[in-house]
Each structure stands twice: as structure tokens, then as C-alpha cells.
Design goal:
It is a single chain. This protein has 189 residues and is of the alpha/beta class. It has a single domain, classed as Rossmann fold. It contains seven helices and five strands, in the order βαβααβαβααβα. The radius of gyration is 17 Å and the shape is globular. Bound molecules: adenosine-5'-triphosphate, (3R,4S,5R)-3,4,5-trihydroxycyclohex-1-ENE-1-carboxylic acid (SKM) and magnesium ion. The site of (3R,4S,5R)-3,4,5-trihydroxycyclohex-1-ENE-1-carboxylic acid has 8 residues, from loops. Magnesium ion binds next to α1. It is found in: Cytoplasm. Pfam families: SKI. Catalyzes the specific phosphorylation of the 3-hydroxyl group of shikimic acid using ATP as a cosubstrate. Its cofactor is Mg(2+).
């Protein structure tokens, strides 16, 4: 089983958009943990309203664990004597994480089992993307101020969790996906 690719980074950095292109390049479909949480539990604002941020984080951790479970199973089978190794050529899982997934140590440990790509960006770049945002409850009434504060709080966690950091500023999602694929291959995956 190939090493899974995890995309990490702040809200609107492009994890879902880049992930969809990267997955297509690799011949697989994107696993978007936010989308899985929404499919199972309702919209993100609804979840925050009903269960608080803590409830959302529990669903997020579960979605992340479910995303990597097939990989962990295959890695175990490979190590177990007498069990044939799974095909090595299957496409790696591409996982777009939620922006706050790095907050929990358990999530960071899971992400560290794969190739973790930090999509670096800044307030000037995401400003136009989050201006009228109603889908990200943490951004509230002053999205850019909230984004900047949250980014400052988490920046070190993104850096520490990443295998690779990509500066996404001034690049299209397609260019970023291509750069990740090249780095992933260069790293021997
Ligand atoms: N490199 C890019 N250039 C231009 N637009 C981009 C780029 N990357 C993403 N976008 C756009 O920015 C918006 C936010 O991107 P996306 O939803 O992928 O962010 P995200 O990191 O998944 O955010 P979240 O953490 O909230 O899930 C989307 O409209 C997307 O199409
Ligand atoms: O950065 C965050 O805390 C979040 C990012 C989004 O991906 C969603 O997971 C949610 O809006 C929270
Ligand atoms: Mg996303």
C-alpha cells in the first residue's frame, strides 16, 4: 500500500481544491474529512450549534481515523508473516484534512504516518476567498481577523506536523498539486 498523502493548513488554504486535483492525478478519489463529517452529521455550522467545537473535533478525529484505517490495516498485513503483501501499485489515499485537525496530538500522530503536506498561505491570499464566508463558524463576523488570529495560534503546529511545506501563494491549485506529486515521487513514494 502506498504512503497516504495528508493535506494540512489553515482554512481556505486550498486543501480540498488541491486535494481533488492531486487525487485525480493519482487516479483516486479525494477523502475530505470535512465532507465526511458533514455527510454523517450535518453542516459544520449545525454541528457547532448542536455539539460545540468539542463535538465537531470528535467527529473530525473519527473521520481522520477512518480515512487511514485501510492504510494501517495494509501496513500491518505486510508486516505479518505468511500473509501476502498487498499490491504496491495501488494509488495512495489523498486526504484533505480540516484546518483544525492538527490541534489534537492523536490526529498529528495519524497524519505523521503519511506524507503530510502543509499548504502555506497568508491573509492577503485567503482574504478574497473567505470574505462572505458562512460555512466556517470559527471565522464569525470578522472573518479575516479571526483567520489571522487562528493562523498565528496554529502556525507552529502546521510546521511541526509537515513532511513538506509548499508555499501556495501566487500558484494555481493545479500547479500546487503538480508540485506535491513531484515531491512525493522524489521522496521515493
Ligand atoms: N491556489 C489557489 N488559487 C486560487 N483559488 C484557490 C486556490 N486554492 C483554493 N482556492 C479556492 O479557495 C477556496 C477555498 O479553498 P478550499 O475549500 O480548497 O480550502 P480548504 O483549505 O479546504 O479550507 P477548509 O479548511 O475550510 O476546508 C475555494 O473556492 C477554492 O477553489
Ligand atoms: O480550521 C478550522 O478549525 C476549521 C477548518 C475547516 O476545514 C472545518 O474543519 C471547520 O470549519 C473548522
Ligand atoms: Mg476543505
Amino acid at each position: 500500500m502506498s504512503t497516504p498523502i495528508f493535506l494540512i493548513g489553515p482554512m481556505a488554504s486550498g486543501k480540498s481544491a488541491v486535494g481533488a486535483i492531486l487525487a485525480r492525478l493519482l487516479g483516486t478519489t479525494l477523502i475530505d474529512t470535512d465532507a465526511r463529517v458533514v455527510a454523517a452529521h450535518g453542516t459544520i455550522p449545525e454541528i457547532f450549534a448542536a455539539h460545540g467545537e468539542a463535538g465537531f473535533r470528535r467527529f473530525e478525529s473519527q473521520a481522520l481515523a477512518d480515512a487511514v484505517r485501510p492504510h494501517a490495516k495494509a501496513a500491518h498485513a505486510k508486516a505479518a508473516p505468511g500473509i501476502p503483501a498487498p499490491a504496491d501499485r495501488c494509488a495512495p489515499a489523498v486526504v484533505a484534512t480540516g484546518g483544525g485537525s492538527v490541534l489534537a496530538a492523536g490526529n498529528r500522530d495519524l497524519i505523521a504516518t503519511g506524507f503530510a503536506v502543509y499548504l502555506l498561505t497568508d491573509a492577503a491570499t485567503v482574504g478574497p476567498r473567505i470574505g462572505a464566508d458562512t460555512t466556517r463558524p470559527l471565522l464569525g463576523a470578522t472573518p479575516l481577523e479571526s483567520w489571522s488570529r487562528i493562523f498565528a495560534e496554529r502556525s507552529e503546529l502546521y510546521e511541526a506536523t509537515a513532511t513538506l511545506r509548499i508555499d501556495t501563494r501566487g500558484r494555481t491549485a493545479a500547479q500546487i498539486a503538480e508540485a506535491i506529486l513531484t515531491a512525493y515521487r522524489d521522496a521515493g513514494h
